[in-house]
Design a protein that fits this description.
Elements: H1 5-16, E1 22-26, E2 36-41, E3 44-45, H2 52-67
Length: 70
Amino acid sequence: MDSNPELTALQNSINHFKIKGEIKLFFDQDKRKKTRFILTKEDISISPPLNYSQMNMYLLGIWHSKKHKL
């Protein structure tokens, strides 16, 4: 079980939206910045480092494009 509830929520989102990939934490040298996440597929990053709300919007965009077959 992940200790980060935001990471768990994002992973649940990609499972619900049937997005093939994995959410990982992005580590930055600057500790003042909030936690950021990246979407990876086969260990290749397919998203920029985004905070929780930005990643939610990114996943919703992927889901909408899949839903409308864009």
